[in-house]
Amino acid sequence: MKIFMKTMLKKILLISLLFSAAVPSTMQANLDLAALRSGAIEIVSFLRENSIVVGVGVVGIAVFVWKMLKEKAMTDGFFLAVENNNIEEVKQALANGTNVDVQNKYGDTALIRAAYMGYSEIARLLLDNNADVNWLSKQNNNSSRFTALMHAAWHGHSKVVELLLATKEADVNLQDNSSRTALMMAASHGRLEIVKLLLATKKADVDQQDMFGYTALMRAVSWVRYTIGPEKRQKVTNIIEQLLAAGADPLVKAKDGTIVVKLAHDNPEIQKTINEYMRKQTLGPLKEAVAALPGSLELPDELATFISECTY
Questions:
Q1: Which one of 1.10.10.10, 3.60.15.10, 1.25.40.20, 2.40.30.170 gives the CATH number of domain 175-285?
Q2: Which of 21, 128, 194, 304 could form a disulfide with 299 if both were Cys (CB 3.0 to 4.6 A apart)?
Q3: Domain boundaries, the chain
């Protein structure tokens, strides 16, 4: 029996090695599954020929190993096709029964990988096959929990963002493990077009805060410090204007008490944009309130401006 079990273990190990992590995924994807099938059949045949009564346990192990390795080969081939932007192989994998939401070892789905790479046609194919648009990759020591929308927003893939939003199912306010949203990621990386797309949904919470209490507006103002060149700086200014126009509150406080005007202290242009917005927001209501007082009082513009500026 010991000799038999050793033989079985060797055969199972040999089959396992065919599709182990040590074998490059390119080889795994191209290997003929006939070799693997042959190995599993050989184990079963060996049991029958030697008339060894070992119950269904060993046979079950052989079948389990075969199924597990077959699924791994299909999954690896599927993700390899996505990474290579090979839409025909992706179609074939789906036709062969690969689960569209199967995950790789990092917990990413194929849609998340396509969004990360900016492969809009593959993303469209996966969505047409009912891929989960809100899947959050699992958190580990080396990566954040991102959705496909977060990846596309972060890396500036506007076509993929449009596809994801067009499903009407994408949750634009989902947060990663640092409590950041897709809007924060787009704003903090100067992705003006994507900020516009997200705001156009009318669903994005412009004042949602991350783990540090920062909003998308704060993230945009912080990022401008690291931008080089007038074109990029203008793009960030436009993002700030878009967020303010969408109702972003410049008086929201971060966990350390910081407000967005303080973040812009070393950038007069951004500070001017925010101050002008705040002045307009307070000046109108202030004049209306004074006009409503008994005696038909009228507040001079200079005094109204001074008072409004004292409110922040």
A1: 1.25.40.20
A2: 304
A3: 1-90, 99-171, 175-285
Q: Model's pTM, two decimal places?
A: 0.71
CATH architecture assignment, domain 99-171: Alpha Horseshoe (1.25)
Tokens 């290997």 belong to: 31
pLDDT in tens, 139-151: 555 567 899 999 9
Taking the C-alpha atoms of residue 245 and residue 232, their distance in angstroms, rounded to an integer, is 20
